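debug: dumping io for the single-chain case to check the tokenizer round-trip. Nothing else runs in this session.
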Amino acid sequence: MGESCMRQFAKNVVKFLKAEDGPTAVEYAVMLALIIVACIATVTALGNNANNTFQIVKNALPTGS
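debug: decoded output
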């Protein structure tokens, strides 16, 4: 079952790549939206990791008087 599903997927990819009609504005908008979502998710994850790292360093430093 999994092999036939992958074969169908591969056929659809080839069909898409062979299609002569170019991408429309809607397709470009969808691609842009997906790229923006991926960028926001990446920046959020990196920000959270940086914040956690700074908190660990802050907690490891001796307190001043």
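debug: round-trip ok. The mean pLDDT is 86.
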